[in-house]
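Hey, can you fold this one?
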Amino acid sequence: MVEQASAWVESPLQMLCAVEAHHAGLLGPATAIVPRAGLRPLEATGRELRSMALPEGLELAEPRERMPRRVRAVGDAFSGKVQLRWLLSGPGRVVVVDDGPATLRLLELLAGGPFRPLLRARAEARPLRRALGLAAAVRLRLSDVSIFTALPVDGALAAAARRAGVHLVRHEFAWLRAQPPSAASPAERTVVLGTSLVRNGLVRRDHYLRWLTDLAAREPVAYFPHRREDPVDVALIRERPGITVHDAGAPAELTLRGLDAGQRVLSLPSTAITSLRVLLSPRGVAVEPVDVPDDWWTSRAAPALRSHVTGVPG
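Sure. Predicted structure:
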């Protein structure tokens, strides 16, 4: 009987990249993708994926509150629950699928040596949490670790990670690129991806809304909200003339894969810029990052944080 690997996912991007990792052969012939329960974006992503021709041997399991006892693939390597599971399971094969900028931070920490605890950027961890992060780092160094990513990785960082024993596997959404276009693709020439920077208190709401309003005054705009965007802000955007809000729920990589030449995607700094370029550039679709003007930032956006946000690969 073929042993089935489990992939624990907590975001739409993690779910999509787990499908790609199975398609690439990293997880073995049989994989069950187990989504965390209670997350509506994961439910929407699962529905969209089930409407497509999933790779052979892949199962989209029912959502669960708790992680499976043995997990081959995860997305959030900085989760305390994930790290504790690694310690309880012992060394073995571990695949980490894309989770945005956190993937690059994980590479940096693993490349920096075994005594750098796995903690989120700018996290102020208590002693017990730091100890768990350190134990998880040591355990990963004893394991067969692969990091599966579509993000650009600096050559020096990639080499340092490989010297540390990490298998860095790059991908270009090979499975998704082979799928038929999504019927949900918008007709508007300009598509704007929403951002979480306003809700996080880093970008001024009035400046962001004014930019959208001015853009829509020149041409119709299709707006796809970020999954962590404030519903109040989305309601305000919906009221703006010329803007059609699409409540897709599934990640942009799925819903926008059918855009045609002549259309374009605009986005504030986001890892979606990278993945959408991989998917849409061959179709002649421009994916354009929008720089955040200095006067958009709030006092909460310290210079180091601005650099981190705007340094998202694109």
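The longest strand covers residues 144-149. Let me know if you want another pass with a different chain boundary.
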